[in-house]
Amino acid sequence: RFDVRRKDAGSAGACTLRALAEDHSLVGEATTPVEPSTQLKARMTRSIRTERLATSVELVGCQAPDQSHPR
């Protein structure tokens, strides 16, 4: 579960998450779409398929279609 805050409620985008193992190695990654909304804030839930047990998840960032890098 993670929270998304937008500058413009009507904007869409995508958020990238990384799942990490106890030794901090990457064991899974997922990008989930953020649909336009009337709300500036959204609570998102996403499952990540992993190659082995993950002990933490990192929100890499979110980006709008016109951005080149996640923020």
Kindly describe this structure.
It is a single chain. This protein is mostly beta strands. 0% of the residues lie in helices and 46% in strands. It is built from no helices and 5 strands. The chain has strands at residues 2-5, 13-20, 26-34, 41-44, 56-63. The strands form 2 sheets. Strands 3-2-5 form a 3-stranded antiparallel sheet, with no helix packed on it. It has a two-stranded antiparallel ribbon with strand order 1-4. A hairpin with a 5-residue loop joins strand 2 (13-20) and strand 3. The protein starts with a strand and ends in an 8-residue tail after the last strand.
Instruction: Estimate what percentage of residues fall within beta strands.
Output: over 45%
Helical content, roughly? Answer: under 10%
Give the tally of β-strands: 5
Q: Uncertain regions: pLDDT < 50 for 5+ in a row?
A: none
General shape: elongated
**Structural class estimated from helices and strands:** mainly beta
Mean pLDDT, rounded to whole units? Answer: 91
Instruction: State the helix count.
Output: 0
Main sheet properties = 3 strands, antiparallel
SSE string, helix = H, strand = E? EEEEE
Rg over CA atoms: 13 Å
User: Strands of the largest sheet, in order across it?
Assistant: 3-2-5
Beginning-to-end CA distance, first to last residue:
18 Å
